[in-house]
Amino acid sequence: MRRGFSEQEFLDFAKSYLSEAFPNPQRIGCPRDWELIRMSEHPKEELHAAISDHITFCSPCFNRYMEILGELKRRMRHAHRR
Ligand SMILES: [Zn+2]
Predict the structure, then answer these.
(1) Rg (CA), the chain
(2) Around ion ligand 1, which residues have CB less than 5 A away?
(3) pLDDT digits (tens, 9 = 90+) for 52-72
(4) pLDDT confidence of residue 3
(5) For residue 21, how far is its CA from the centre of ligand 1 (angstroms)?
(6) Is residue 1 part of a domain?
(7) Of 67, 7, 14, which Cα lies nearest the Cα of 37?
(8) Which of 4, 14, 50, 58 is 20 to 30 A from 33 in CA distance terms?
(9) Four-residue CA torsion sign, 49, 50, 55, 61
(10) Rounded to an integer, what distance in angstroms lies between the CA atom of residue 45 and that of residue 20?
(11) What is the number of domains present in the chain?
(12) What is the pLDDT of residues 18-63, one digit of tens each?
């Protein structure tokens, strides 16, 4: 029996949708790379509302943020193994 969307299914959907829906070749209004990294490591609503808003309508930033999150996860898995 299925109970609607799992979180993973939702993420997959969001990923495939957001990664292409909003091309922004001029990178207008994009945050700096380090700002995305800082948000991935220490997300703070009041500090990062503008950035997290931005990545929901900017595919290049969304893709970059997913990449950063992936790296962060890998690093955390690494840390846990030792
Ligand atoms: Zn952007």
Answers:
(1) 14
(2) 30, 58, 61
(3) 999 999 999 999 999 999 999
(4) 64
(5) 12
(6) no
(7) 67
(8) 14
(9) negative
(10) 25
(11) 1
(12) 999 999 999 999 999 999 999 999 988 888 999 999 999 999 999 9
Token reading at 10: 């939702």
Residue 44 placed within a domain = yes
pLDDT computed for residue 11 by the predictor = 85
Instruction: With respect to residue 73, please indicate whether it lies within any of the assigned structural domains.
Output: yes
- pLDDT of amino acid 24: 96
Closest CA to 43 of 53, 58, 30, 57: 53
Ligand 1 mean position, distance from CA 77 (Å): 28
Residue 10: its pLDDT value, please? 85
The range of the structural domain enclosing residue 41 comes to 8-81
The residue type found at 3 is R
